[in-house]
Specification:
The chain is mostly helical. Helices cover 74% and strands 0% of the residues. The longest helix has 32 residues. The protein is elongated and about 100 Å long.
């Protein structure tokens, strides 16, 4: 049996190719409902944290200077801050409802199986909350 030369062996070998991974559908983060829920929960949590920090700081002005406190409170009575209160209620509502969803996922066996459905239920309840709140808040802010 004749031996093949090194040149013919190299020609017969296939060069391995590296396939690039398939990009997941949706977003860069593989996310669907679960990922969006995670992102929104973190964003609303950080926003609420900073609101509470500012709230504690402006309330503490009462002890330092009642005039400064009154000046800060008067800035909160502007229409811009009234719209900011809508954002605050939206953040608190979404964060709270999604927190209940996370509790259900963590403590009940059926939670992970139905987490997508629960996400849409949270969004529906959140929208209902805002539909009830926003018109009254706008009437309050703009004197309607």
């Amino acid at each position: 049996m004749p031996q093949e030369s090194a040149g013919t062996l190299a020609e017969k070998r296939a060069v391995p190719t590296i396939k690039s991974p398939r990009r997941p559908a949706g977003t860069l983060y593989r996310g669907r409902e679960g990922m969006w829920s995670w992102v929104l929960h973190r964003i609303t949590g950080v926003a609420i944290y900073f609101f509470l920090l500012v709230h504690i700081l402006d309330t503490s002005l009462v002890r330092l200077s009642p005039e400064a406190y009154n000046a800060v409170i008067n800035t909160y009575k502007t229409p811009i801050m009234g719209l900011g209160e809508i954002a605050l209620v939206a953040a608190i509502g979404l964060h709270g409802l999604n927190g209940l969803r996370i509790i259900l996922i963590d403590f009940w066996g059926w939670g992970t199986k139905h987490q997508k459905l629960m996400f849409y239920i949270v969004i529906g309840l959140w929208a209902a909350l805002l539909i009830g709140f926003i018109p009254r808040q706008l009437m309050h802010v703009f004197g309607g």
